[in-house]
Amino acid sequence: MDRLQWFKRAGYGLFVHFGLYAMLGGVYKGTPSPRNAEWIMRHLRIPVAEYKKLAETFDPALLDPDDIVRRAKAWGMQYVVVTAKHHDGFALYDSRVSDYNVMHTPYGKDIIKAFADACAREGMPFGIYYSQMQDWEHPDGNGNTWDFDPTEQDFSRYFYGKCLPQVKELLTGYGDLCLLWFDTPYDMPKPLCEELAATVKALQPDCLINGRIGYGLGDYRQMADNSIPRNVYDGAFEVPMTLNRSWGYSTLDTGWATPGDVIRNLVQIRGRGGNLLLNIGPDGCGNVPKASTDVLDAVGAWLEKNGESIFDTDPFPDFPYINRWGDVTYRKESNTLYLHILKYPAIHPRISLLALASKVKEVRLLQGGTPLAFAQAYDLAREEHRLSVTVPQEEPDAVDTVVAVALADAPRVQEL
Questions:
Q1: What is the mean pLDDT of each successive set of 10 residues along the chain, which is 416 residues long?
Q2: CB-side exposure of 291: number of CA atoms within 13 Å?
Q3: What is the number of other CB atoms lying within 10 angstroms of the CB of residue 298?
Q4: What element of type H or E holds 42?
Q5: What residues contact residue 347 under an 8 Å CB cut-off, 6+ apart?
Q6: 3-state SS of 363-402?
């Protein structure tokens, strides 16, 4: 299986946002960042000289990449992506290009190498995030207009002096990468984006490039943050999501998603043919917030029982109606449609799926395999296919009860 086919079937990955910003937790000198904590330097226009002082005390002694990767595996994640350099310009690895990196802090250890090695030990595909256009520390990087005069900036000096050489370091020093995750290309000149993409493929031909390299040069489409497409997308795609509102650690953002929220999002994304890349943000000491691990533990337990309906699945033709009870996923290999009952019927223990034109062979609960009674008919007057399934009176799963529907012929959906 080639890398892109692997990616399309992976379904679920772990994103890790970590950097100097984690030390601030979304607050600088008593002023909270108005939005994402990892953007605090830009939002509050913190001078480079002030922000760099964070590196003098950066010592996340409790960061444990091995534990995070093992947890990711238990949570059902199929790949891990870690921020090597975010928009603030600080690198979490041993860069020879710029001294503004983790080796020049009290911590003094290559965090990206630790994650790469942990992933290798666990057989977990490893990807790296790199902010290619924004760099608020570099005089010629994009984004810092409070320290540097934009009229005097030459982006090519940054690109050839820091960006491209650092990307080469990441591609040659950290083993086989499953993907490089670029971000915020904005109006970066297309020829430079093309050179960046060509460099990735020259050094690691099988390394996937995400869509945020810009200009359609990526191997797969990167959807907007926390945004699920309405319909099936014809091609590989990924939805990056947070468990709260911020990507980097924030002491203020406690609006955590529930396990049900994550499962619902995962089901919808997989049903449309994409991957969910779900983020955690360790704090300045390196601890992953317990509120986020509790959620992911619960999702992982659900996936252990219901993973058949999520992993190695394929997009199914779009249904013309929104199902009030939930959503569907599909596995081509077994020709099975999975009905995810996210809102269990309160009165009559029955759900209906309209417009399924395929013939149904059998219906069962995914957990335990209990056969379920069903009726399939075509309403001649309404010109409408209808599948009705009788479900247990008592809800088998409080978050998502999965019903497996084995089809007898090719997947077909009636067009209205």
A1: 94 98 98 96 98 98 98 98 98 98 98 98 98 98 97 97 98 98 97 98 98 98 96 94 97 95 97 97 98 98 98 93 95 97 93 96 97 94 92 95 97 89
A2: 14
A3: 17
A4: helix 40-43
A5: none
A6: EEECCCCCECCEEEEEECCCCEEEEEEECCCCCCCCCCEE
